[in-house]
Each structure stands twice: as structure tokens, then as C-alpha cells.
Design brief:
five-stranded mixed β-sheet, 34% helix, alpha/beta, 3 helices, Double Stranded RNA Binding Domain
């Protein structure tokens, strides 16, 4: 026999799940891609950003292919770089914080090479710098870059999820 408390809990959880799915909520990293671009080849330098991007694409229901010929679209990462510049100075003119900037330029092409999307995305984070704790500051910078790579990958896939100018017919 199910008691009233358990029944209420099940009903409440069901209502929350239905509400979240109806409003378009998706878990971080799970952005659904349009049918015509799910089958994608990613041309990017090997590294953590490419890995993050491919994970986000796969989480969105896409399938990253090993070759251009096996894909419907090609995502070309033209540039992916991080830079650091002085953020603030203290009253003695010494560096007090740094800004870390991660920039990615990409283009999405269809099978025939027609450009569907060309964009540049930039993320910036600031961290405090203490010359007495250089190792900790370097570690914080590396963590920020990793976080920015994830955010930029999500933003790219979010932008790709809005591609509507692709001629796509099921089966071809």
C-alpha cells in the first residue's frame, strides 16, 4: 500500500519534471542540435578545447565523425587562444589582478563548403594576483581557462542549435 506522503512526493517530482521539460530546460552541456547538423566533423587543434567541444556536441545528440566525408557539416575552429593581460594595479603600480581572455573563431560549412555560420566568441575572467602565491595563481588561471573552454563550447553549440539556413531533407 502506498501512503499519502509517498504519493504526494511522486506527484510533485513528476510535476517538476514535466514543468522543466516543457520550458526547454536542458542539463548543462545538453543542447539539442537541428537534425541537419547532428552529423558533424570538427576540424580543430588537438587539445582540451576540442575535447570539450566534441563532448558538448555529443551531449546535444550530435555525432562527431572521424572524417569530413562521413559528415553533413564541418565545424572549423579557425582560432582558439587564451591571453592574459593586466587587470588592475595596486597603489604602488604592482599588478593586483589579471584578466584571462579566451577567444574562439569558427566557421560552419555544409558538405559543399557553403558557409552557414561564421562567428567569434570571447570569454573573459579576472583573478587576483599575489606575488607571494605564484603557484596558486597559475593554478587558478589554468582552472579559469578550463572553465572558459567549457563555456565557449556550450556557446558555440547553442549558436549552432539555431542554424536554420541548411537545406536538409531526411535521408539526404
Amino acid at each position: 500500500m502506498i501512503n499519502k506522503s509517498t504519493l504526494k512526493s511522486v506527484f510533485l517530482l513528476t510535476a517538476v519534471a514535466v514543468t522543466l521539460s516543457a520550458c526547454g530546460f536542458h542539463l548543462r552541456g545538453s543542447i539539442p542540435l537541428p537534425e541537419g547538423i547532428k552529423n558533424m566533423f570538427v576540424q580543430a587543434p588537438q587539445g582540451s578545447f576540442k575535447d570539450q567541444l566534441e563532448d558538448v556536441i555529443n551531449n546535444g545528440g550530435g555525432e562527431v565523425q572521424d572524417s569530413r566525408g562521413a559528415s553533413d557539416v564541418v565545424l572549423v575552429i579557425k582560432e582558439a587562444r587564451s591571453d592574459r593581460r593586466v587587470g588592475t594595479l595596486d597603489q604602488r603600480g604592482k599588478v593586483d589582478s589579471y584578466d584571462v581572455i579566451f577567444t574562439v573563431s569558427y566557421v560552419l560549412n555544409d558538405k559543399e563548403g557553403k558557409e552557414l555560420r561564421d562567428a567569434t566568441i570571447t570569454e573573459t575572467r579576472r583573478y587576483n594576483f599575489n606575488p607571494e602565491q605564484v603557484i596558486e595563481s597559475e593554478s587558478e588561471e589554468a582552472d579559469l581557462i578550463e572553465d572558459m573552454e567549457q563555456d565557449v563550447a556550450l556557446r558555440i553549440v547553442r549558436q549552432l542549435s539555431t542554424v536554420t539556413d541548411l537545406d536538409y531533407a531526411p535521408g539526404g
